[in-house]
Amino acid sequence: MPITETAMNYEDMQAAIANPQNVCQECSGRLSIAWGGDGYILRCTHDITHKGISREPVTNYFPGSHVAGIPKKEYGELESKHGTEVTTALAQIQSRAILNKEQATFLVQTLWGDAPAIEKAKAVALCVNYQLNPLMKHVYLVGYRRKDGNGKDWSMMLGIQANRLIASRQGRFSYIDNSPRLMNEEEQKSIFGDVSTSDYRAICKLRDCTDDTTAQGYGVWPKSNQPKGTDKGNTPQNMAFVRAERQALDRLRPGEMPQNVEVIDADYEEVPIIANKETGEIIEVLPETDVIPEPEVTEKHTDGDTVTEAEVEELKVALADYGKVKHGIADRKDAYSRVLQGVGVFCKAQEWQVKALKDLNRDQLRTLHQALNDGKI
Asked: Which pTM value belongs to this model?
């Protein structure tokens, strides 16, 4: 049956047919608006009895591309920051669907050279294992100013475009019921038990085009929280849409999506410029993070010193994160245990006389971090 104004107002119907990706859910035919006697209806042009809207995911993320598919603006920024020679090398890698470890390392090191070694290692592993490319807005390393103003923390993020790409490799899928969109009151009561006045609540419904299985996800974003990229058109509603879509994709393709990695809308994300290397001045105002920073070591050390308790705790966190990305283990304890076994083998191969992480000295800690960065653990 066609969609009536009871379910969708006229303005939303016009928006639906204006998007060429919106098609009939049953036959993929074109949609049109017609007068139904008591109001307007949105119907399939092939058969008025067909019901539902389906939308094909957008695959062309870079209209107006310049060199090897890199958009003109991004190409200019890369050329200004890294020089023509480096940017040309980046362009040669940009269009590759699959990166090897050497190529991924080159990209990550060039774009985020100031990031900690373990964060860069995680980004490289993610790119190689999931066939992602940072230049195609799949993966980001983002620096966050610490709340106390002393230094910055780094976090790896995934563009929602990467989730769509990973999901599409398992077969075609489409968006149904004009989603992602904001929930109506009835849906909010059904899912959350109440109607929120402080949050935007979104819903996203997906359909597998092969077997017609469906999945839906929900996303919430505070109305008072203005997200990054509002000057480019980003909105709190869009952030709720992204979260809903991420959850729906994870449910449609269980076990396929990277876990415990924050998802952003790459259309509104910039490669961050953190600070002037000479003066230390913050060039771009960075958002605050809720992550509690690890304590910094202020006392001076020599390379042969035994590592501090704080450094051991930092290493434990790094090992757990590495195990989750490298081996795809969701549970942090299991991921840590798996990598710790590898660390033991590595230490024995180096002929280090250590029985626990606290026995490492600073030279060994540096070597261990480099091994993690190289994926040797």
From this structure: 0.52
